[in-house]
Amino acid sequence: MIHRMGSVEPLRGVLYADPKFASGFRIFGQLTLTFRYGRDDEEVMGLRFCNEAIIALKQICPKVETDGDPKEDLTPLQYPQ
């Protein structure tokens, strides 16, 4: 999602992996949050002001069986303490 001037755009995406190409490989998806701060003119000078956090990392293909345990579907940030 993208947050600009008080509005939030929804997260959208499509992944297509050719089964012939993906055969024998594992495909992972990763959702990363990038928080930018600072002025745009500073980025032109080669300075980059941002923080990144990996929000979710999950194996997409082949599908992993979870044995019905709901904790298996949680991301590392969602695990109960």
UniProtKB/TrEMBL annotation:
Lineage start: Eukaryota, Metazoa, Ecdysozoa, Arthropoda, Hexapoda
GO cellular component annotations of the record = cytoplasm
Which InterPro entries does the UniProt entry name for this protein?
Arrestin, Arrestin_N, Ig_E-set
A GO molecular function term, named singly, is:
G protein-coupled receptor binding
Q: Which family does it belong to?
A: Belongs to the arrestin family.
Top-level taxon in the UniProt lineage: Eukaryota
Tell me the Gene Ontology biological-process terms attached to this UniProt entry.
G protein-coupled receptor internalization; signal transduction
Protein name, as recorded = Uncharacterized protein
Task: Give the matching Gene3D superfamilies.
Answer: 2.60.40.840
